[in-house]
Amino acid sequence: MAEAPQVDNAQLMELLSVALGVYYGEFTLAAASENLTASQGKALTVLRRGPIAMRALADTMACDASNVTGIIDRLEKRGLVRREVSASDRRVTNLVITTQGEKITDAIRAKMHTTREGLDRLGAEDRNHLSALLERVFGQPS
Amino acid sequence: MAEAPQVDNAQLMELLSVALGVYYGEFTLAAASENLTASQGKALTVLRRGPIAMRALADTMACDASNVTGIIDRLEKRGLVRREVSASDRRVTNLVITTQGEKITDAIRAKMHTTREGLDRLGAEDRNHLSALLERVFGQPS
DNA sequence: TATTGTTATACTCTATAACTATA
DNA sequence: TATAGTTATAGAGTATAACAATA
């Protein structure tokens, strides 16, 4: 049996802070290489998961709804995102990523070498375990 | 034996993206409750680990060095950070967090309920495992 | 010559408040 | 009345370029 390192939550919070800092820094640089700001890249990443309303995107990005207008304006001007008025509620604007937008999110992800090489160091079992742990920590909070 | 979910790196990258979104969103709100922007909170969090030069902080934050000047100006004006000219190289400015700055980072961390409760759901063994996995993925990249 | 930190500039992000359209 | 999205505004973040001080 290996010695239990006895990691407490404060140390784990610190480790998460460092790990996600590395991830976010690399994401910012990768987005910049595609001429996107971090916020634009983040919005595009959320849209990559599927269509979403302006308001819901603002909630996911933890920013005010008024900010999303400008961010989406710039992405739409570049043809990376499409606005669609909801059929069921005409107040709602649904956002849909375009094929070109999908290509850019894929390009950003492909450029995140540090993170990908880090994950490559894990075997299949450890990948499964990390996935399960992240889902338990960050998955649907009650 | 449990069925192997067969998680590939693309899924893990997506999961990391979601985790970062939850963590960063909560961090932004916690920092705002202390009247700090996300960037100011991030800078203070890095400084909490120990003194660091302006240039190194810019690298860690993945932003241009010129930005750090303004961010530190505002933190210094509030007494949360101190500038110290390096004794060994007078071009270098070392940044030191103050006692008041430490208190604020602790207050921010204390307010991150979703993340902390997520970690609380893990037992001692899973905490150790998550810690080891994060270090293997994000620890000192060659 | 090269590096550190600052300043000036232009653009983007951000929250707040007020507004229109729709429910 | 309440909600979705936009606009206007002011302060903060951001990269670029140019600069002074130091190495």
What is the topological layout?
The structure is a homodimer of 142-residue chains.
Chain A: H1 9-33, H2 38-47, E1 52-53, H3 54-60, H4 65-77, E2 81-85, E3 93-97, H5 99-110, H6 113-120, H7 124-138
Antiparallel strand pairs in A: 1-3, 2-3
Helix pairs in contact in A: 1-5, 2-4, 3-4
The structure holds a DNA duplex (23 and 23 nucleotides).
Describe what you observe in this structure.
2 copies of one chain form a homodimer. Chain A has helices spanning 9-33, 38-47, 54-60, 65-77, 99-110, 113-120, 124-138; strands at 52-53, 81-85, 93-97. Helix content of chain A is 63%, strand content 8%. In chain A, a hairpin with a 7-residue loop joins strand 2 (81-85) and strand 3 (93-97). The first copy, chain A, has a 3-stranded antiparallel beta sheet. With 142 residues, chain A is mainly alpha-helical. The model of chain A has no long low-confidence stretch (mean pLDDT 94). Chain A starts with 8 loop residues before the first helix and ends with a helix. Chain A is built from 7 helices and 3 strands; from the N terminus they run ααβααββααα. In chain A, helix 1 (9-33) packs across helix 5, helix 2 packs across helix 4 (65-77) and helix 3 packs across helix 4 (65-77). The interface between A and B is large, with 61 and 60 residues. The structure holds a DNA duplex (23 and 23 nucleotides).
